[in-house]
Design goal:
By secondary structure, the chain is an all-beta fold. It has 1 helix and 13 strands. A 6-stranded antiparallel barrel has the order 5-8-11-10-9-13.
């Protein structure tokens, strides 16, 4: 049977200047997360050192889990569990899940929250993800300011801040 035609759509790219996560990354290269609904199957990343002659750099075969905060995330000290008010996140696609403390302390549920500018990001982790509405999760038991981003943590991340799961 023929499948319904889905026209290619533009993807939403989010560029992030994050610290090295695994140590295997190119130190000067930014991170990129892309998504769309529906997902076209892959997204092409092009590069040029001028404003012409773009060449294919990479194909991204899986969409990222991206969303927007639906509540404020207030400042919390790094190096300890943030037991403050949870933050609600509405996702464009995908799902989140809770993890045990041992997995959390081993690097699970690493995410970035930011204002959308390349260098306006904080890396954090969350232990509890509770589904509260369709594609909307309440995140709590957080570890804030991970990988040295504690210096970038504002007094609060406002409602509407970007959320990117760093998986």
């Amino acid at each position: 049977t023929a499948r319904q035609f889905v026209a290619p759509l533009p993807v939403l790219p989010i560029y992030m200047d994050l610290p090295l996560i695994t140590g295997d990354e190119v130190a000067h290269a930014p991170y990129i997360a892309v998504t769309s609904d529906p997902w076209p199957g892959s997204a092409a990343v092009y590069r040029s050192f001028t404003e012409s002659n773009f060449g294919l750099l990479n194909l991204i075969g899986q969409r990222a889990i991206i969303g927007r905060t639906q509540s404020v995330l207030k400042f919390a000290p790094s190096g300890q569990f943030d037991q403050g008010l949870p933050v609600d996140v509405s996702l464009t696609s995908g799902a989140l899940s809770s993890v045990e403390d041992a997995a959390l302390l081993s690097g699970a549920n690493l995410a970035a929250i930011g204002d959308g500018t390349p260098d306006g990001w904080e890396v954090f982790q969350f232990g509890k993800a509770e589904l509260i509405a369709e594609k909307t999760y309440r995140l709590s038991r957080r570890l804030r300011g991970q990988l040295g981003t504690d210096a970038l943590m504002p007094i609060e991340w406002p409602e509407g801040s970007w959320f990117v799961l760093l998986d």
